[in-house]
Amino acid sequence: xARRVPRGQETRARILTTALGLFARRGxxxxxxxxxxxxxxxxxxxxxxxxxxKDDIGRELQHDLYERLSLASMxxxxxxxxxxxxxxxxxxxxxxxxxxxxxxxxxxxDAWVIPALDQAGRHxxxxxxxxxxxxxxxxxxxxxxxxxxxxxxxRVLLGVFAEATLHVLRTGHRRAAEDxxxxxxxxxxxxxxxxxxxxxxxxxxx
Amino acid sequence: xARRVPRGQETRARILTTALGLFARRGxxxxxxxxxxxxxxxxxxxxxxxxxxKDDIGRELQHDLYERLSLASMxxxxxxxxxxxxxxxxxxxxxxxxxxxxxxxxxxxDAWVIPALDQAGRHxxxxxxxxxxxxxxxxxxxxxxxxxxxxxxxRVLLGVFAEATLHVLRTGHRRAAEDxxxxxxxxxxxxxxxxxxxxxxxxxxx
Lengths: 206, 206
Hints:
Largest sheet of chain A: none
Order of helices and strands of chain A: HHHHHHHHHH
Radius of gyration of chain A: 21 Å
Distance between the termini of chain A: 77 Å
Number of domains of chain A: 2
Low-confidence stretches of chain A: 194-206
Structural class of chain A: mainly alpha
Largest interface: A-B, 34 and 33 residues
Oligomer: homodimer
């Protein structure tokens, strides 16, 4: 029977896991390729066989974390449920996963301020903007959300999520940032919490 | 009568203005100190007398633009007016000034993705967070805004403003981003637009 993971891929995965641990514990800037190789128990040559340089490792780790987080968040979308509940749940899932990442989350926080990684992260960001814009545009068309420009709203909301996430990573507490995000998301509903009764009442008074 | 601006300061100002024009027209990365000196009609030595390197010029320009924009925005605060109106007006003023900056606004957009400048911009950002947090905390204490953590809210709102500004710079139109910002800010009022009547009505029905 063939090995499910080729030996080379195992080495590559070990280099990535080792690098992530080192980056998270000691900070991206102060870790060298030599240390990664030593800690992973491979030669420097083996590292350079798989990666062009340290930034290449960093970009791979960042993209992998991004994919895991965004895929898991998207999987919480319940078809038929309203968009505000879906987006709120997706963001909650994102924060929970971030918490579960352990030390890796410190690398993610740092990655945003490492130029070489930030640049690569922009492509992921544009993918995220595209996805959120499509979800919002459909909900605005259905009359589920207030009528705002879907592109502007998608970018602003991703700014909200990014700042809220940084607040959670910085303070170590979720509640304050989550409350802000929930409040802003709730404000986007075209109809308030109890739409039918409120509308009737308003009609009756007029 | 003494000259109001010493000759050296005039040279320094001319270098800055020239550099800003070049950065805005051609992009920060492709402009050299030599070109700045040539275009400003001074020697390279004169440029290096005032600035350590190109990033030093960039940081000075960025900080100067930040100060002009934030001071002007703060001056639109009307004491006694509600905080949502004040913040909305401050953001409108910020966008108007950005439009009036002409080509300089392109430098500002680029500066956010130039590592050396972005780093320096973080100090300005923390100042802005401090200011907004204080304004929000006072309004929450007065019962004027919904009860949310002032620190989390300040950071998230600055993320909103930054993304909205980038949207305006990217699309060349203010309306879409402004509508999003206004809507989110309005949602922060502790009492909705016509609080008294709505509350009475609700009370009467129950």
